[in-house]
Write a structure and sequence with these properties.
Elements lengths: L1 E7 L1 H7 L3 E6 L6 H10 L16 E4 L2 E3 L10 E5 L6
Parallel strand pairs: 1-5
Antiparallel strand pairs: 1-2, 3-4, 3-5
Length: 87
């Protein structure tokens, strides 16, 4: 298992009621997609299933925006956040 810090920002943090956590991941959780599935399926899924909506939830791996195929090998932190708009 590898230990990973997971951060949740803005509306995602509000919906989950959690800002961050440290998790020991199973060996088969080796990319962002597997992490999302792992998180969404724990504790009966809800409200964690919201992380599976790639259109509403963006991901950063070690503070760089990444897609769901990004490897978690050697990664220290993964963050989930909603798309930002600005003007």
């Amino acid at each position: 298992m590898s230990r990973l810090k997971i951060c949740y920002f803005a509306s995602i943090r509000e919906q989950l009621g959690l800002a961050a956590e440290m998790l020991d991941l199973p060996h088969d959780v080796n990319d962002v997609a597997a992490l999302v599935d792992f998180l969404a399926n724990r504790n009966d899924g809800a409200p964690w299933a919201l992380l599976q909506d790639s259109g509403s939830v963006l991901v950063a791996v070690d503070q760089a925006v990444a897609d769901r195929t990004a490897s978690l090998k050697g990664v220290q932190e993964v963050a989930f956040f909603p798309p930002m708009t600005g003007g």
